[in-house]
Amino acid sequence: MPEFETLVRFGGIAKEFYVTNVLDLGFTSVRWYGAIIAFGFTLAVLFGGRRAYVWKINLDKMIDVLLYGTVAAIIGARLYYVAFEWDYYKNNLSEIFQIWEGGLAIYGGIIGGLIAAFIVCKVEKLNFYNLLDMVGMSLLIGQGIGRWGNYANQEAFGVLTNNPKWGMMSDVIAEKIAENPSVYGLEGIDNIPEYIAQNDLYVHPTFFYESVWCILGFFVLYIILKKYRKFSGQLFLTYGVWYGLERMIVEGMRTDSLYIGSTTIRVSQLLSMLIVVVCGALLIVLLAKYKKNPKPIEGVDYFPPKTEKEIAAEKKKAEKKALKAQKKQYKIVDGKPVLKSKEDKKSIEPSFDENESSESNDEADEEETDRETILDDENDERYFRERKTADKEV
To answer: Which residues have CB under 8 Å from 159's CB, separation 6+?
Structure first.
């Protein structure tokens, strides 16, 4: 895609907006498309990292998921797009690798990333369904911001709109319309850019529709996360329904859709419809199952908040163990507790393997602590008073 600078006008806004597809940094320049997608990706990763911390997911393992998933997502997004535009790329093979020019299909990226994430989760023993919930929310952040990369490239717009107040137009868009006028019902017109300007025509800003829908969807999922999450995978299924509905509708307005072969069936529209049906059905079935048999969210890497009873029980157990450890430091001489000497401690050290001994003793201590009846308050007070006297004598 060549560099350009253009003014974008919106039907309902008097002001025009200057847009360029290249970001000049002085010492170098980068494409706005790539910079915006990178920014959205960074925010999505930061949010995912925060959720991993809250859910007590091992961050080292999460980095592995991120690295492999990101590479697989980029490859999947590009392969998906190239596969359905093969008639063009088979004669321009060198352009397959020019991802900074656009041409990354979100569904291809999701498929590639999820395959890699599933494999890493199996190897690293992570709960894949908890990861899916995190991914669903992160995707909405990345997609909501990343769609503005299409605005920088002046692409991913829709057909001409009957309501100019909702539409947008620029010289770059007008030139793209002129390349394929039949799609917009403008065949037979000689100078299309001039005709568009004279008749004040606008196209649907479909990139904007999707951006707003995704950002709104993030807040919807966040509310579900905080108040209504019942099982692992619920947020991702909700993401599938939420995003699928939008894409199914908005894709019908776009003019740059990928099609199945020579048919008029839009790939993303059909796939979105299937995703909505499958995710919606699973969501209903699993929520009904939870209602009949409520249980904590599964996953060894997810820990629900402890109850007051559990906290009190753990505290009592820790106190018992500490008291037992203190008592082991003393021996009874003439009916009084006396601090053990180093020789006394060495005489009772086990002769077998140290590691095995430690593990066995830990297990025995746990069992004995659970069974042991601790001295009542009066005996404990007398015991430590005598111990204090013994310390002074020593």
So the answer is: 183, 184, 203, 204, 253, 254, 255
Residue-wise pLDDT tens digits, 136-189: 999 999 999 999 999 999 998 999 998 878 899 999 999 999 999 998 999 889
Q: How far, in Å, CA of 394 to CA of 388, rounded? A: 10
Selection from 201, 174, 138, 144 nearest residue 11 by Cα: 201
Phi/psi for 357 (5° steps) reads -65, -45
Q: Quick one: which of 153, 143, 273 has its CA closest to 209? A: 143
Tokens at 199, concatenated: 């008749």
Work out whether strand 330-333 and strand 168-169 pair parallel, antiparallel, or are unpaired: unpaired
CA–CA gap between residue 164 and residue 150 (Å, rounded): 20
Identify whether the C-beta of residue 358 lies closer than 8 Å to the C-beta of residue 352.
Answer: no
Q: Let me know the angle formed at the C-alpha of 332 by 331 and 334, rounded to the nearest 5 degrees.
A: 145
Average pLDDT, the chain: 83
30 pairs with which residues across the strands? 23
C-alpha to C-alpha distance for 352 and 393, rounded to whole angstroms: 35
